[in-house]
Design brief:
The chain has 328 residues and is α/β, with parallel strands linked by helices. It is built from eleven helices and 15 strands. Helix 11 links the parallel strand 14 (298-303) and strand 15.
């Protein structure tokens, strides 16, 4: 099979290779998927660059956890009727050396989720990390029904979905932050009531103005290290931060201001969702996909051969939305 891979961490154009590797065979309980699309996420860039540490977890890594394709073969214990099924994948490259930047990948059968026929294949490569992260952030701890929600980065790959899920799941008000008028338009089209340009507007003042001084019930936060001071001011007493990212490995939070206002802080990473949380999110997501109520923002499509260019684009913040690679 044709695959992209790296055998050392470093710059994309220096370590990413594309070549022929042996075809994988499904083990017991696995399916083999012939991939059509591979989804690239910031976590893939961090792993390849060495930002998570220079030591390779495996001698060779085929990157990317998200993907979409057709089940080509099944291992023992898997219903043969699944052969030919359109599926999207989650955690294909998490704690494994074999991700979706290849023509074939084998994964445990539960990690290959049926993709509704009405959903384009490239969208399937955006669901495992961006969509499920956003959906869990909205669903966790009782959900957002009746709440005022602030979504940090509402034009980004996760934030764009989080705005939509907040609206669809009953939020009273959806506010988001963006970095340009173009991104504001994208977030507003996705269902945000207010889009605040954090480069030109005072975010705290605007949020308090839009909420009549009450603050928001929940912040869905992509970078707590950068935005904690803002979140501190805009979340109401007994409100919550739901945090899925940080631009720094370490940061500090002020204890007494937080405890005096009874803040709740929920940290999570989508790779480690519990089985019940993942099943719930997949069910809700599948229903939305079938109903065709979601907007999908795919900012870049490139062939597998240009994987280094795709990594550069994500690393440099050059793309608004999801980046996917076509396979074959």
């Amino acid at each position: 099979m044709k695959a992209a891979f790296y055998e050392q961490t470093g710059p994309a154009d220096q370590v990413l290779l594309v070549g022929d590797l042996p075809d994988p065979q499904p083990a017991t309980g696995e399916v083999c998927v012939r991939l059509q699309w591979s989804g690239l996420n910031p976590s893939d860039v961090k792993a390849r660059s060495g930002a998570r540490g220079p030591i390779m977890p495996f001698p060779r890594v085929i990157p990317h956890s998200d993907g979409m394709g057709i089940i080509d073969a099944v291992g023992a214990g898997v219903d043969p009727a699944r052969i030919g099924e359109r599926v999207w994948l989650w955690n294909a490259g998490w704690a494994r050396p074999f991700g979706t930047a290849a023509e074939l990948v084998c994964v445990p059968e539960q990690q290959a989720v049926p993709l509704p026929a009405n959903v384009p294949g490239e969208v399937g490569a955006c669901l495992g990390i961006p969509a499920l992260t956003a959906l869990h952030a909205v669903l966790t701890d009782g959900g957002v029904e009746g709440q005022r929600v602030l979504v940090a980065g509402g034009a980004g790959a996760v934030g764009h979905y989080a705005v939509q899920f907040s609206r669809l799941l009953g939020a009273r008000q959806v506010i988001t932050t963006v970095s340009s008028p173009e991104k504001a338009a994208l977030a507003l089209a996705a269902g945000a009531d207010v889009a605040i340009n954090y480069r030109t507007e005072p975010v705290v003042d605007r949020v308090l103005e839009e909420t009549q001084g009450a603050g928001v019930d929940r912040v869905i936060e992509m970078d707590i290290a950068a935005n904690a001071a803002i979140d501190m001011e805009v979340v109401r007493p007994d409100g919550q931060w739901v945090v899925y990212g940080s631009g720094a490995r370490q940061f500090t939070l002020p204890f007494f201001p937080m405890i005096s206002r009874n803040f709740g802080v929920r940290f999570f990473i989508v790779y480690n969702l519990s089985d019940s949380d993942r099943r719930r999110a997949i069910k809700v997501l599948t229903d939305f996909l079938r109903q065709e109520v979601l907007l999908h923002n795919i900012g870049m499509k490139l062939p597998l051969a240009l994987i280094a260019d795709a990594h550069h684009a994500v690393e440099n913040g050059a793309v608004t939305g999801n980046v996917v690679l076509s396979i074959g």
